[in-house]
Amino acid sequence: MPYPCFRRISIFVSFMYLSFLFLIPSVYALYEEDAGKFDWHKSLLGPVCHARFEGNFLLLASSYGAVAVASASNSDGSLLWRQVIPLAAPVALPVRDGGTMDKDEKPAVKVLELVLHPQKRLVMALTRDPSTAALGVWAWRLFDGNLMWHVTVPASGVPLGKRVKAKEGGFLALFPDTVGAVDGETGEIYFLSAVDGTRIWKAPAIELMAVTGVVPVDGGTEKGVVVVGEGSDGKAQAFLVRLGGEKAEKIKSVSFSDGGLISHGTPSLHAFARPAPARSLALLLLSPSSSSSLSAADMQLVNPSGAKATPHGVLSSPIPSSHPSSLSASCLVLSDSGAVVEITLTQGKFMQRLVAPPSSPSLPLAFRAGPYVLRGEENQGPGVEVFRVVDGQSVGRVRGRRSLRGLWAGIRGGWREEEKEGRESDLLVLTVDKAETLVLQTMDDRLVWLREECLADVAQVLIVDHRPPAEGEKRSGTEDVTEALATSPLFEKLLSVVLPPSPSSSSVRDPHFGLTKILLFLCAPSSRLIALLSSHGGTILWTRDLPSVEGREGARWRMVQQGDEVLLVGEGGEGLAIWLDIVTGHEIASLPTLGLTPPAPSSSLLLFPIASSSSSSSSPPRLLLVDTRNATGHRARFLDGSSCAQGALGGREAGTEESLGDRPIFYHTLSTPSSGGASLQTYRLFKPSSAPSSPNWPFQSAVVGASSLPSPSELVVSTAYPDVRETMTAPSSHPLGDGALLLKYLNPYLVALASTASLPPSPPPASLNVTRDEGSQEGRRQGGDEGGKEVSTLYVTLMDTVSGRVLYRVSHFHVQGPVRMRLVENWLIYSYWNCKAQRTEIGSITLYDGFIDRKGLGLFTSPEFKERTSSFDGDASPVALQQTFLFPHPILTLGSTLTARGITTKALLVGFEPGQILLLDRRLLDPRRPTALPLSKTEKAEGLLPYAPHLPVLPPHVVTYNHTLHGLHSLYTAPSSLESTTLLLGVGDLDLYFTRLYPSHKPFDLLPDTFNHVLVSLVLLISVVGVGFLGKAAQAKALREAWA
After folding, report:
1. Using omega within 30 degrees of 0 as the cis cutoff, is the peptide bond preceding 511 cis?
2. Is the pLDDT of residue 1037 over 50?
3. CA 148, CA 124: separation in Å to the nearest integer?
4. CB–CB of 225/244 below 8 Å?
5. Residue 145, Ramachandran bin (φ over 0: left; ψ between -120 and 50: alpha; else beta)
6. Against a cut of 0.85, is the pTM above it?
């Protein structure tokens, strides 16, 4: 080969290798070994109602029946363990559309007391079960949360007249080896063994109308409890109940100094001891009357003493302490003016001393932690002020965040009563606001951790793509934000080619694959918006409190994405619209009013996206807002991003320059009254020729279609709509084993209705296309054999929301809810409980639009079919196939996988009890699964499985692993840039779970974990060096030949 040619080839190869080397930093791949490392699980508590510091441990209990232990030293606020107390019996509640219920409708076990047994190191809770009204005592081990024992006390037969009506109460009294449980409703006392919960003795019911306090008495030989409450005469009474005694010994019957009864309230109780050697017990009773009388009784005195109102205001209640089990020599009482008063007992007389001066007239909160007393305000948030009990001197203030709802404090490492001087640096302050944000801070205002417990009340979720914030952008709520994504320099990218990827470097690769998402949670009723990052354990990006709509406190909000913005529409009053930046949370624009005059209720507004008529595919969707209060004609307007708000605020009348575009716009309303029956009405949007009455609402609508269920007694229990993203990316046909094609019926305007009725089985009207599967026919025969007895029947109806036509309808007998539904492409999946067979069943329906023979599509042949199908075509009814399967667990919710291009095979996501998620292959639920064996060649070539009614639950396909999502109710999926990968978010009452899924079970666009990147890099480097060496050798050889 001549030298010039060889030189040009070597230069070209060297240039290609160097170019490939410089392109390596911009090429990324996700390794299989990275899968699963970024899954995260958040355990929530809900609204915290009890908190208690025990050394470095923090005991927590919520109103949702959850008991947990957290560490005061963790920086992330993670729970060491959590236990959710289950209901003893299921409670039947009405199911709303979609199979969901409001959080307020979901009953939960109520935690009455939460204490720590100091000798046994057991976390003990006294609970009330609303389903059975039974009292329960639970004991868990402090360090790992293992349940040691549980005792249930059944509801007593005490007449209702002797039970407290205003509040369900209960109290625990702790002894070294014994636990006393007092039923506040009946006055019954149970003494249990602290070791195994064995009942030692039960005291008879005390003749009290309401028990308001219990104090343990352990005097060596004498052991028992002092019970204080309201007697039948309306006066406060105290009883001493000795362990093993035959009856309750009455100590005092205390009447207040003003001589009035207390039937309009209950007295509050606090007990404290006189200094040694007397060691006597004093009972302090505070009257709820406006006269603010103060009564106290010493067990060693004959007559109780009383005191009138103090000059600092009405004494409302004793201040709770972080060590209520130990009796102190004084009692701190909070007045209605915010003053803290110390009361001591000296020679039968009660002395008062001012510890903290009065504060603002807003509702105060106070808590005692060892030598300190903390005071905050409930309605305002200036902070929490700390005072020393000894001299009443203010030692500092902990900065508040929002209006407080609860206040607790403790000393890190514990505190002994003999310690007169406190350790201010070890003081920990725990606050919870009305938005259910739990914050733990130190005395120097350092944030230890923060927990957003409002995530237990999620009303709506959006999953959007993440983009790094632009230079100079700052996220909203920066004090609560941890920057999670960073850009690596070029050296780190080159180094990542040679060395194995680290978890920190994976954050660089994630944005290139669309694996990093922003999760937007709209929490109700706190009206709080929280943005989480899907990677890095669900890091909080920003938080924002939504304003209240004028005329309606705590208004309902709706959230819709518009490009890089999110629109929030507040319903109630005249309406409110706010546009926020998704990445930073900053407000871009807002409309103070939507022009709803008169104010409209929340159920009269419709908000949904409309595809933009712009030719650019990147244009954000237009949002249509419809006011449906006028039944004869609705009015509507578009909300086209924040620009429409800026134009309206700049003087232009919003909506006057808007147009409907080339395509007609249809929408529908679905009425599902609780009395039964359902009706669907379809409307078409138009712009009237005359000027509209309101310039803010330039469009009107007219009815173009209507439909209703055949029977007015049918009650709609669930609805399902298709996901537009799935319909647009789904393949239009399904290949068969012989080369033929089944055309899918892909209609984005479908709606599936599940309705129930207790009627004898009867054939539907002839105009409806009704089929029944084998199980339905069997149910009909069984119903007929019952002699005309009413049978609970489930009807599943598929309707077109544009024309209002019923496309398909099927019935099932002996069915009980709740019904779960999921509509995916041309596939409807629904589950129900067969109360006759006592099993969970899953129905599968697929819709097809036609069939193309394997010879019908070729070079010279083409099938005859319409490119576009109209909903108003009378012959557009699909061909439906239906089959029923059996599932071994009760189903909580249904979902489906979603990929970017729809190439990967769909899979069903099944949330089943006790809170697990199963990835179920779609082929298992195909109604075309053949029942005849053996399978034909075409069936084998297509991959059809023989029909088997029982669906398997394979442990490798349970995507939640060993996690349990309590109260699982929703599944959200989002696509990534990798076609094989789907992102899943599971939302429960007290849990959030995020993971990556592979619907095909074999990721086809990921590098295997055995990929030898070191060897590839070495081969590349040796090749570059070899080419350079050979080039120099060729040049030297050519030089020698030239001189020869």
Report:
1. no
2. yes
3. 10
4. no
5. left
6. no
